[in-house]
Amino acid sequence: MSFSDLFDSEFKQRNKGHFSAIVRIALADGIVSAEEKGFLDKLATKLEIAPSEYEEILENPAIHPINPPYLYTQRIERLYDLARMVHVDHQLGDKQEVILKKIAVGLGFTPGNVNYIIAKALSLVDKKVDFDTFAYEMQNMHK
């Protein structure tokens, strides 16, 4: 196995774990709504989850370990990607903030601050800022 294959494999496993965690959040109330299903479909494509893996994860999301990012910058990067996906097509409608709050807690953000974090993230995404600006603003939002 070459070095690049090892990196590619680790990247795919991390994406599967990330997707699996989001599926668990979507299933927390026992059902996946049509809006959530549409979001999961789009997310699976973005994370390069194969259709067979997608179905497998939907059936049993616990088969892949949750790999929350341990670096704050990685959390912000994932939040940026998710907030942009949710905001761009408004696929989740009124549920977008609720779902993003659940995902943010799953990513490792503090439950006590998650309301502020999501409000700020959606505000920045609404302004169409680039990632560097998003990261700077999120890291300095209390200054």
How do the strands and helices of this protein lay out in sequence?
Layout: H1 3-26, H2 34-46, H3 51-59, H4 72-89, H5 96-107, H6 114-126, H7 131-139
Helix pairs in contact: 1-2, 1-5, 4-5, 4-6, 4-7, 5-6
Number of helices, counting only DSSP H or I runs of 4 residues or more: 7
First-to-last CA distance: 47 Å
How confident is the prediction overall: mean pLDDT?
80
Shape: globular
Strand content: under 5%
Largest sheet, described in full? none
Number of strands: 0
Uncertain regions spanning at least 5 consecutive residues: 1-7
Name the helicity range: 55-70%
The topology string of helices and strands comes to HHHHHHH
* Derived structural class: mainly alpha
Radius of gyration: 15 Å
Structure characteristics:
69% helix; 143 residues; mainly alpha; disordered N terminus
